[in-house]
Every structure is written in structure tokens, then in C-alpha cells.
Write a structure and sequence with these properties.
This protein has about 110 residues and is mainly β. Helix content is about 0%, strand content about 50%. The chain is built from no helices and eleven strands. Strands 2, 4, 5, 6, 9, 10 and 11 form a seven-stranded mixed β-sheet that branches. A four-stranded antiparallel β-sheet has the order 1-3-8-7, with no helix packed on it. The N and C termini lie far apart (about 40 Å).
């Protein structure tokens, strides 16, 4: 069974940076395409970006392209989301997903203040 755990969320001022971590256990991490999502109350979960198995290719939604960077460390079973130039509208619960949509973490809250 695959287990995912996000960490690194917190409070940050607008314009600041934050780096989220997703640790995967239970199966071979390198087998999975990995993605990040976020969700705010009353809204559907929003896709942010994805990274392929070997870290060679990434794809981002327009809302975060140029500000967020996804990376992974297959030896450490870890994926990262580096967030820069944060905006108030980036406030949300952030989730990582393996085999996107199949396995989810519990989420980590990011709050951006003015």
C-alpha cells in the first residue's frame, strides 16, 4: 500500500517562498508519476503540476508556471514543491498524489498573508 505524507506548509507573507515535501512509502517511488494539487473550501481540487518518473520532464498549470518548481529525489522517495512569489490566492491545502489521482497524502495548509 502506498502512503504519502506532505509537510512544509505554514504561514508566509505575499511575495515570499515556501518549500513543500512529499515523502512516499510502501512501494517503489521511482515507478510513479507524481503530481501536486491544492484545494480551497468550496472549490474543486486544482492541478498544479506533475513530474515524470525520472525527473526529466515537468508540466505546470498556467496559474503556477514560472513561480512553482517540482522536483523529486528517487533515492529518498521524496518529491518537492518549491513555491516562490507567493500570492494571497495561493492560500490552500496542498496535496501530493502518486500515479496521479490514485494515491493521496493528507494535505498541508499553506496560508499567504498580505
Amino acid at each position: 500500500q502506498v502512503q504519502l505524507r506532505e509537510s512544509g506548509g505554514g504561514f508566509v507573507q505575499a511575495g515570499g517562498s515556501l518549500k513543500l515535501t512529499c515523502v512516499v512509502s510502501g512501494r517503489t517511488f521511482s515507478l510513479y508519476v507524481m503530481s501536486w494539487y491544492r484545494q480551497t473550501p468550496g472549490k474543486e481540487r486544482e492541478f498544479l503540476g506533475t513530474i515524470n518518473r525520472s525527473s526529466g520532464n515537468t508540466f505546470y498549470s498556467d496559474s503556477v508556471k514560472g513561480r512553482f518548481t517540482i522536483s523529486r529525489d528517487n533515492t529518498g522517495n521524496t518529491m518537492y514543491l518549491e513555491m516562490n512569489s507567493l500570492r494571497i490566492e495561493d492560500t490552500a491545502v496542498y496535496y501530493c498524489s502518486a500515479d496521479p489521482g490514485a494515491y493521496w497524502g493528507q494535505g498541508t495548509q499553506v496560508t499567504v498573508s498580505s
